[in-house]
Design a protein that fits this description.
15 helices, 425 residues, binds histidyl-adenosine monophosphate, 20% strand, eight-stranded mixed sheet, alpha+beta
Length: 425
């Protein structure tokens, strides 16, 4: 019977156990190598920020701020929130640390946990890890294409299959208000046919209606006016250029006129990346876009910016579904077996000698049976097992057993590191 008092991890949050670390490590290695190649500097910001930063940056009416934030009051009565995403905190840091005076464009990347109080389901957690890339101080469309290319390259390098980029433009303060009006008046005449959620979205942020997945709203969406037909000249040519860059580097994209994203700070380009193959889910692996007004909105100088973030858990589950291996564990070439307390003491010393010489040695000091230890050495694929019994410890020697042939010889304990190193070459 289950113990009622057993502690469990918090709903929607999970442990990353040792056997899964190899996937996270592989992703981290690929992401950090790519970040280095493209000249991004790593940044870490606190997990907790002022609630107002997210409310202002992400938007009060967004689901993320309205429903999904973990808010807390400190003893000093400050309102703080666990970060639901990184971008707002990074913009805060960019402003606070005067990064506008560094050479621009300024490129930053990050990797760490985020928190959203969402309904837990496949690919949706309350604590999840994001990695992301942000570029500040450059308004050119080539930056949008480069951010997309970076994420595409990361997923390619991870060997994820059937990648697809969905892309759209949400315009800017010149053209979006007019489009919103147009969409509102179109929806007004159909308000009775849209789902209750859309009725709410219609009032709070009409663009979000385009994001609705409800069956009954689909025909209404299909006939709705599309923002791409109503972009101002600047947004239109910016978007056209982004697509031309993507064509040039041969990235597979589709235009998705319904892609509006769930965060309010975007201007112009928005995009998401998916895997369409088996095991791939409808959830985006990554999403992002341009946010030219956010730095100013958060009380910094007017600074164009563009970036995106990816969800690590979704990538890990896709890697597993597509039989993609995680980072390789380093090989165990030597196993140290010991019998008796004196041998254990010598064994501890010998292990350190190997560590100083940078030779990996596995052991199981807790075990006393030679058979069990040899089995373990076999399982780990060790080439040699060093056997240290009471007699060997007294005589200052160690038995070197070749695990493949079963041949054994006795060498001086002071010389075993050098001898083994030579045999491994
Ligand atoms: P986002 O689309 O909200 O964008 O999140 C980016 C990615 O994080 C998603 O594509 C998804 O893979 C992952 N993700 C989001 N929520 C969850 C969840 N509950 N469980 C698991 N994974 C999740 C942003 O956060 C923006 N800050 C991206 C950005 C950066 N835009 C510009 N710069």
């Amino acid at each position: 019977m289950a113990n009622k008092n057993k502690f469990q991890s918090v709903t929607g949050m999970h442990d990353i156990l040792p056997e899964d670390q190899k996937y996270y490590r592989k992703i981290y290695d690929v992401v950090s190598n790519i970040a280095e190649f493209y000249g991004f500097g790593k940044i870490d910001t606190p997990i907790v920020e002022e609630t107002e930063l997210f409310a202002k940056g992400i938007g009060l009416a967004t689901d993320v701020v309205k429903k999904e934030m973990y808010n807390l009051k400190t003893k000093g009565d400050d309102s703080l929130s666990l970060r639901p995403e990184w971008t707002a905190g990074i913009v805060r840091s960019y402003i606070e640390n005067g990064m506008h005076s560094l050479p621009q464009p300024l490129k930053l990347w990050y990797f760490g946990p985020c928190y959203r109080y969402e309904r837990p389901q496949a690919g949706r957690y309350r604590q999840f890890w994001q990695f992301g890339f942000e570029i500040f101080g450059e308004s050119s469309s080539v930056i949008d294409a480069q951010i997309i290319q970076i994420f595409y390259n990361i997923f390619k390098e991870l060997k994820l299959k059937d990648l697809i980029i969905e892309i759209n433009s949400v315009g800017d303060s010149n053209c979006r208000p007019y489009y919103k009006k147009l969409l509102s008046s179109y929806l007004k005449s159909r308000e009775s046919s849209i789902c209750p959620d859309c009725k709410r979205r219609f009032k709070e942020n009409v663009l979000r209606v385009l994001d609705c997945k409800e069956e009954k709203c689909q025909p209404i969406k299909t006939e709705a006016p599309q923002i791409l037909d109503h972009l101002c000249d600047e947004c239109h040519s910016h978007f056209k250029e982004v697509l031309e860059f993507l064509d040039e580097i041969e990235l597979p994209y589709t235009l998705n006129p319904y892609l509006v994203r769930g965060l309010d700070y975007y201007t112009k380009t928005v995009f998401e990346l998916f895997s369409e193959s088996e095991g791939g889910c409808k959830n985006a692996l990554a999403g992002g876009g341009r946010y030219d007004k956010l730095v100013k909105l958060l009380r910094g100088r007017d600074t164009p910016a563009c970036g995106a973030a990816a969800g690590t858990e979704r990538i890990v589950s896709l890697m597993k579904a597509q039989d993609i291996e995680g980072a390789k564990e380093p090989e165990t070439q030597i196993f140290l077996a010991q019998l008796g307390s004196m041998a254990k003491r010598k064994g501890l010393w010998l292990l350190e000698e190997f560590r100083k010489s940078k030779v990996r040695v596995a052991e199981s000091f807790g075990k006393n049976s030679l058979k069990a230890q040899l089995n373990r050495a076999d399982k780990l694929g060790a080439k040699y097992t060093l056997i240290l019994g009471q007699k060997e410890a007294l005589d200052g020697v160690v038995i070197v057993r070749n695990m493949k042939t079963g041949k054994q010889d006795v060498v001086k304990i002071d010389e075993v590191v050098a001898i083994v190193k030579k045999r491994l070459k």
